[in-house]
Amino acid sequence: MLPVAKVSLRRLLPADLAVFFDMQQDKDAIHMAAFTAQNPEDKAAFEDKWHRILTDADIKLRTILVSNETGEQSVAGNVVVFPSELGREVGFWIIKQFWRCGVGQQAVSLFLNELKEPTLYARSAFDNSASIKILEANHFVYQSSETNYACGRDLDVKEHIYKRCS
To answer: Is the pTM of this model over 0.85?
Structure first.
């Protein structure tokens, strides 16, 4: 576990996209997230997706930063809220080197405080205990499950749906 002095959020910078592309190549992260890009190595599809995200006014996105004890900052992932068939949905992706040190939980908390939306939803693969822990720590409550095809595992996976009301 890495010592993390501070977690903060900022608007996305163009250089963050290269980090995000590398992030989605990690095999462990792909398996854990399950519901990922069909082909994580497809740079054109990645750029297309991010162009849509960055030009959609209904999507709110932040880059997650961590500062170590000397104040040096590193990109640790991203957190997003977007419209879905459920309503407004939260998603996040944390770089593996920052797993299990509280970065996700802190980043989601900061983002939720910034958003101040009354009702939000989130999803997690049934066995992604780290994501479930982050959601529950941020007052998301399990609502239901459904089974969907997960590109990251190339099979149908049960997905838990969570709801948070402020």
So the answer is: yes
Residues 162, 143 contacting (CB under 8 angstroms): yes
6-165 is classed CATH 3.40.630.30: yes
Dist. CA 50–CA 15, nearest whole Å: 13
Radius of gyration of the chain (CA): 15
Q: Where are the beta strands (DSSP E) in the chain?
A: 6-10, 60-67, 73-84, 87-94, 119-125, 141-150, 155-165
| 106: confidence class by pLDDT, cuts 50, 70, 90 | very high
Say which amino acid occupies 42: D
pLDDT in tens, 35-50: 888 888 999 999 999 9
**CB of 3 within 8 A of CB of 69?**
yes
DSSP three-state, residue 38? coil
Cα distance between residue 113 and residue 50, in whole Å: 24
CB-CB neighbours of 140 under 10 Å: 23
Please state, in angstroms and rounded to a whole number, the distance separating the CA atoms of residues 104 and 42. 26
User: Please, which residues bridge with residue 124 across strands?
Assistant: 160
